[in-house]
Design goal:
The protein is about 50% helix and about 10% strand. It has about 475 residues and is of the alpha+beta class. The strands form two sheets. The chain has a five-stranded antiparallel β-sheet. A five-stranded antiparallel β-sheet has the order 9-8-7-6-10. It is elongated. The chain binds fe (ii) ion (2 copies).
């Protein structure tokens, strides 16, 4: 049974039982490590000595004892191989993947993609299995293969997975990992461009375009996972992270509209580079916590024009991308800056970036403001739609994000704290959440809960999520749980 399977509704079981479950899950990985270690030792002993040798007897007994102990947590032991790595169920075992690398290689070469050991295992079966497993690949082949020999020996409590069984399932985990690397690549590129602006060099526009293309592909593959990345913040290096977040949000929002790839590329470049004009503003002004002097405010207000000037001078930047930098503070009703009153309205790309820009800014902690939670920020967007923001775009944005977008830290109806992990399959109100704290605030081994299974337990409020929380108040970085 997989971890998710365990999240089925447990009717009539109260909070106490759930707390107990968490306590159990905390020790699971450690227990699994112990079982794997003793498995490896027993296998090695069996390769050196006959089964009745003292060393073998001891190592077999040790394994059986640890396995029985493990069974008080779990109904079976499931070791998976993905590429050249061990997974205990869905959890990567980085340490063991290195320590037992030769074992992984051997299992793969013998056509094993995973080993499931059932509770019914007895010592004789285990010993038979080890001696079969230790036979050479050629010999196994000669006798019709390992699985066939296991059948002959009536080994029924150990089930082998076919090679590659888990590759597909863990692909998503790896994808999340590489999407994060791409995020940091993008941050690097924006840093590089900033340096180029400061030293008056030509901008690496092609690098910026590459970053936009990569993110656009990600948005096409899995919009909600990429949106989770856009919750990444960096207090000290706000502008670089902000630029990448605005890129992601704008591409995601743009991809909800009937825009083709080349249009999205232009939008993305504008979004990534929208604040480039801020580079020459001193940090003391950008990070000032008190009100700005009129001179400082003028400096701030000049950044869209400055940014547009910089971009205009670069070959290879589309005019509409330049317009995004120029217009992103002009506001929907043209009441912002710079003065664009001669126009009927600002461009579509500028309106998209404006919504995303303000959303990311509001949800970031700055020296002059506390971060708003996503739902608070979305309420501000709604309040100012029609004046500051294009009302249609605000509606699409909220549809896309849901009230609790991926990466939001929330308190559940059960009192536990979690991070929104994935939107619900059919209904955005019931997303999948990674629970990280129990109702008493205690740390728990993170696990994914489908909120749909809380439906039955929720009484008066009818809400599975009570509220969004400020991550900084709990000192938690939700990103580490995505
Ligand atoms: Fe700006
Ligand atoms: Fe901005």
């Amino acid at each position: 049974m997989n971890e998710q399977g365990r999240e089925q509704p447990r009717e009539g079981i109260g909070r106490k039982q759930e707390a107990l479950d968490y306590f159990r899950s905390k020790g699971q990985l450690e227990k699994a490590r112990e079982v794997l270690k003793l498995f490896s030792t027993a296998k090695k002993s069996a390769s050196l000595y006959p089964p009745n040798h003292e060393i073998c007897i001891n190592s077999f007994t040790d394994f059986m004892r640890a396995f029985k102990e493990y069974l008080s947590w779990r109904e079976e032991f499931s070791l998976r191989i993905v590429g050249e790595e061990f997974f205990f169920e869905e959890k990567l075992m980085p340490r063991e993947s290195v320590l037992y690398y030769p074992l992984i290689k051997e299992l793969v070469s013998k056509g094993i993609g995973g080993i499931n050991i059932l509770a019914s295992l007895d010592a004789a079966e285990f010993v038979d299995f080890l001696y079969l497993l230790n036979r050479g690949s050629d010999e196994l082949e000669r006798y019709g293969g390992l699985r066939r020999l296991m059948e002959d020996k009536e080994i029924e409590s150990i089930i082998l997975d076919e090679p590659g069984t888990w590759e597909e399932k863990t692909r998503e985990i790896k994808e999340r990992h590489s999407a994060r690397e791409e995020y940091f690549d993008a941050v690097d590129v924006i840093r590089e461009l900033a340096d180029q602006v400061l030293s008056d060099r030509r901008l690496s526009v092609s690098k910026a375009n590459r970053v936009v293309g990569v993110m656009l592909n990600r948005v096409g593959e899995n919009r909600s996972a990429v949106l989770g990345l856009a919750t990444m913040k960096n207090y000290d290096e706000y502008t670089s992270f902000h630029s990448v977040n605005v890129l992601i949000l704008s591409l995601a929002l743009g991809s909800m509209l009937p825009l083709d790839r080349s249009a999205l590329m232009i939008l993305g470049t504008g979004a990534l580079l929208h604040d480039l004009g801020k580079i020459t503003i001193p940090q003391s002004v950008l990070k000032k916590s008190g009100p700005l002097t009129s001179q400082e405010w003028e400096m701030m207000k000049a950044h869209p024009v400055k940014g547009a000037d910089i971009l205009m001078a670069q070959p290879g930047v589309h005019l509409l991308s330049v317009m995004v930098a120029y217009e992103h503070h002009a506001r929907y009703d043209l009441s912002g800056y710079p003065d664009v009153k001669g126009k009927e309205r600002i461009g579509l790309f500028s309106r998209i970036v404006e919504v995303c820009d303000v959303y990311d800014a509001m949800t970031s902690a700055r020296p002059y403001q506390k971060a708003r939670t996503p739902d608070q920020a979305m309420r501000v967007l709604v309040k100012d739609m029609g004046t500051a923001f294009d009302p249609l775009l605000v509606k699409v944005f909220i549809d896309m994000m849901g009230l609790f977008p991926v990466g939001t830290m929330v308190r559940l109806a059960t009192g536990e704290v979690g991070v929104i992990y994935e939107p619900g399959e059919n209904d955005a109100l019931w997303p999948r959440v990674k629970v990280i704290r129990d109702a008493e605030g205690g740390e728990v081994e993170p696990r994914i809960v489908d909120l749909v299974y809380l439906k039955d337990k929720i009484g008066e409020t009818g809400q599975a999520i009570l509220e969004a929380l400020h991550p900084e108040t709990l000192g938690i970085d939700p990103q580490t749980y995505l």
